[in-house]
Amino acid sequence: MQEALKLVRRDLGSQAIILSTKTPGRTKGKNGTGRQRGVEVIAAIDYDFDSSTLKTKPFSQLVRDGSLPLRDFSSEGDSMEKIRNELGELKRLMKQYYSSPEDNKGDYDCGELKELKWMTQFLLRQAKPLNHCHLPEHLMGLYCQMLKQDICEETALKLIGELKEDLSPDVLEDKNRVRKSLVSKIERDLPLAGPIDLTPGKPRIVAFVGPTGVGKTTTIAKLAVQYALEKKKKVAMVTIDTYRIAAVEQLKIYAKIIDLPFRPVSSPEELNQVLAEFADQDLVLIDTAGRSQRDQSQIKEIRNFLKQSFPVEISLVMSITHKEDTLSAINHQFGFLPIDNIIFTKLDESYTYGSIINQLFKMKKPLSYITTGQKVPEDIEIATKERIISLILGESDIHYC
Prior knowledge:
Elements: H1 2-12, E1 17-22, E2 40-44, H2 51-56, H3 59-65, H4 79-99, H5 110-126, H6 137-148, H7 153-166, H8 169-172, H9 175-189, E3 204-209, H10 216-230, E4 235-239, H11 245-258, E5 262-264, H12 268-277, E6 283-287, H13 296-306, E7 312-319, H14 324-334, E8 341-345, H15 354-363, E9 367-371, E10 380-382, H16 385-392
Parallel strand pairs: 3-6, 3-7, 4-5, 4-6, 7-8, 8-9
Antiparallel strand pairs: 1-2, 9-10
Helix pairs in contact: 3-6, 4-5, 6-7, 10-11, 14-15
């Protein structure tokens, strides 16, 4: 199979679409076994494109470079349904691929699958009578880059539309000036909170909320190490996640290693007492139980815990690996709490980062930190405009998984 796929890429280019694969079986030998007959691979490319061009550049790069002939499909009448049917079949094949056992997937790498998925989505968009088919070359390239990073189409079109209106024709011909203009627009609307800022003699209390499995406890451990060991501040840790014994033990172990005070609490009244005990600390970090965004009663329980006589800052922790609709549900339900800022985790497990922009623009809450792995305390960064923009424009990468 590996040899066959190499031949496909050699003859049709890296963007060839694998329609099906089959292993006929083995020839029978004297002892009942035999060697494999071989494999059958059916592949195709879009014959509207020059295959020699596809061998040297991926589909998305051709779009960004403006060297891909784009047609206005809206004028083709009856062919629209055929286009949709063909692309629907391609999506079905991709879904079948993803659900098939690992040993039947050949040697596709993640980049090839990502490119194939993006190509399908892009062609589906081209089948709509949208006016972005007529965008200037450099605007089209940035528009496609934003879509590849999963920035929602509405936001991407809004940003590109504003650039088209604001920039003069000579500026639109300059790729660097167009990019700088886009960066300026995103920077203008990108809310950032900065790091946790401490005031001498006044404890800062920060609670971390979010669904199960997004990395709240690990994020707290990273911040505790940074502030206690690197910045030499007095830090205490509290958990109200008494539902999961493992969560209590995990934070307790971190506290013991760093030699920090730690308290588990089981009621709002007990939390108030513990916070009074920690009045001499510079920073108090509170871990909360992971809650389903679908269970409003559990989120209300967290809110009751955090209604304290002491001011408590609330950070909503979300994983970039969640789908867009799940992230929207999370910020909608946890928005019942007075959220102060957002933390995005697990950037090392994703290949797209547009969800950060989508959610920040929707919630209108600032981003404080991003996390990039499991290592404590290294894999956490203060969110900066330069870093976020470089990620969503595909100019930097975080992949350790």
